[in-house]
Amino acid sequence: MSQSSIVSRILEVMGSAPREGQLVSPNVRIESENRESGYLRRKISFETEPSGAPASDRCFAWVTIPLKEGAASVKSSLSRFPAVICLHQTTRIGKDEPMGLGGLPNLHYAKELASRGFVTLSPDYPNFGDYRCDAYALGYASATMKGIWNHRRAVDVLTSMPEVDPNRIGCVGHSLGGHNTLFLAAFEPRIKAAVSSCGFTLFKYNRHGGEGGPGNITDWSHAGYMPRIMERYGARAENMPFEWNDVLSLIAPRPIFINATTQDSFDVEGVRECEKLIRPIYKGRDDDFIVRSPDCGHDFPQTVREESYRFLERVLNRP
Question: In the chain, how many H helices and how many E strands?
């Protein structure tokens, strides 16, 4: 199946994105600023909707900028850094968790990457953290597509920053952020590397709350994701026009790191089957397609997280 055909099938479920020709400047606004050890942390907001949209919309995010030791300001330490978009899990506090301002310590990846010298940008998904948004009133067929659109605009924010090397941008996320990382990379070629933790299994392995046997994808069909999954496809995997290996094929051969734990609700066997389908694309480049399966539940344990950071350092620092 061609990439254009895969994209068309995915859009049947998610709905179309606004036209690229309607883009407006992100018009970044600094809401607050704090100096941390080794980096500057800013809360920002940025415009997401194109000209002619039903309403304006501002997404909130944390941005970190590395500071050289002893630097008095960002300007005095100005360099081009690699950057990583850090997408949060399903948590009320949204972007604050990856930034280390609450939530689970194993999900503080934006803070940890900032300490390793990356620019990071951690946006709120619609209706989490500081961000309130009715994606459907804005004309979207899914919150998932609104998230993809916003996250692509977050890439625009990064490429507009003088501190960022626009050719060295990656993405990392856990759970909700894990699949949104893959969706973003599939639709955004400027993402050069993707790290997805506990973000997916093949739909045919999915069990909605353990009910209804494999292939029940009701949990993907609510308003926070893709309502057409129920409306058009009866929330059954066998009716879906795409699978997760299709999403990964849109990213390949760009580097991908997957954390798929053995006791996660996203069945690890579905990830392993997906890996077998995608692995041939990376023949001779196994270190660009890494799958780890630690023996734990829905988590991003430190050993795997640290390996993913080394992965990002390696692939985003290539000439």
Answer: 8, 9
